[in-house]
C-alpha cells in the first residue's frame, strides 16, 4: 500500500490534539511491531515519515529479529533500542551491533540495502523503535552512508532525562547528520512528574509513549498511540504517575510532497517503479553479505499509477 502525503491532512498551522492509532505489522520470525507512521491521516511530522515500535518482547531461546536484506531510497533509517541488541549489515560493507543508548543512522540517498537481525547470542528481551526521516528533494540522491554513534548528548530537568537522538533539545545537540531542521529525543522519566518541555513553535511535533503511561498536554497515552501536536507550541506538558519512556519527534514542516511505498520514499511513481526494477535486477543497491538467508522480494506495484506531485 502506498501513502501519498498530498492525500493526507495538511500541517496543522496551530496547536492540535490528533491521536493516531498503531497498525499491527509482523516483520517476520514473529517480531510484531506497532506502526504509527505513515497513516492515512498523516504521512509525516516534519521529515519523520515512519515510526515502528516493537517490544518489549521475550526472545529467549528464539531467533528474535530477522529482517532480510532489502533496499531503500530517499530516506534515513534511525535505529534506537531500549532493550536488547540488533546487528546491522549493509551493502557498503558495514557490520555494526547496536545496544541501548546508541544510535545507528543509515542515509539511503540514491540507494542502499541492509539487513537487521538479533545476534546469535542475544539478550532475552528486545525493545526499540525504527524511524525514518525523508530526505529533501535536493538531497534525495546523495551518496549512501552509515554512522554509528556510541554516545549521545543528554539534558536533565527536574524529573526527565532527555537523550537527543537527532537535532537539538534543551541545549543538547546530537552529532547525527540531518538534512532538514528536526528533533528526535528520548524522554526517560523515573518517577511521578509534572513538567513542561520547551519546544520550537515553528516545528510541528508528535509524541509517542514507548513504555508506561503519560498525559501529554492532557491527552493520556500508552504504547500504540501517537499524539500529533501541530505547530505553534512553545512547550509540551508531560504528566506521569511513574516510570515512563516517551519519544518526541518534530521538525520544520517538510513542504514537499512525498510518496511512501514499501521501503522507498520518492516524489513520483516513476522513481518508485525504477527503484523496484533495479532491486529486482540486482543493480544500484549492491549486496549485503553475511545474512543467513535470501533478500526480500519486492511486492507488486499498486494498481494504477501513483500520482506524481
Keywords:
mainly beta; Jelly Rolls; seven-stranded antiparallel β-sheet; 309 residues
CATH topology: Jelly Rolls
Count of alpha/pi helices? 1
How many independent structural domains?
Answer: 1
How do the helices and strands follow one another from N- to C-terminus?
EEEEEEEEEEEEEEEEEEEEEEEEEEH
The name of the CATH superfamily reads Jelly Rolls
Number of beta-strand segments: 26
| Structural class by sheet pairing and helices | mainly beta
Question: Main sheet?
Answer: 8 strands, antiparallel
CATH architecture tag: Sandwich
Description:
The chain is mainly beta and 309 residues long. It has a single domain (2-251), classed as Jelly Rolls. 4% of the residues lie in helices and 49% in strands. It is built from 1 helix and 26 strands. The protein has one helix spanning 269-281; strands at 2-4, 15-21, 23-26, 32-37, 48-58, 66-72, 75-83, 86-90, 95-98, 103-107, 112-117, 125-134, 145-149, 154-156, 160-169, 172-173, 182-189, 193-198, 204-211, 214-216, 219-221, 225-230, 235-240, 244-251, 259-261, 264-266. The strands form 5 sheets. Strands 2, 14, 15, 16, 17, 19, 22 and 24 form an 8-stranded antiparallel sheet that branches. A hairpin with a 2-residue loop joins β25 and β26 (264-266). The radius of gyration is 19 Å and the shape is globular. The two termini are 18 Å apart. The mean pLDDT is 96.
Short summary:
With 309 residues, the chain is mainly β. Helices cover 4% and strands 49% of the residues.
Layout of SSEs?
Elements: E1 2-4, E2 15-21, E3 23-26, E4 32-37, E5 48-58, E6 66-72, E7 75-83, E8 86-90, E9 95-98, E10 103-107, E11 112-117, E12 125-134, E13 145-149, E14 154-156, E15 160-169, E16 172-173, E17 182-189, E18 193-198, E19 204-211, E20 214-216, E21 219-221, E22 225-230, E23 235-240, E24 244-251, E25 259-261, E26 264-266, H1 269-281
Antiparallel strand pairs: 1-25, 2-22, 3-4, 4-5, 5-12, 6-11, 7-10, 7-12, 8-9, 8-11, 10-13, 14-15, 15-16, 15-17, 17-24, 18-23, 19-22, 19-24, 20-21, 20-23, 25-26
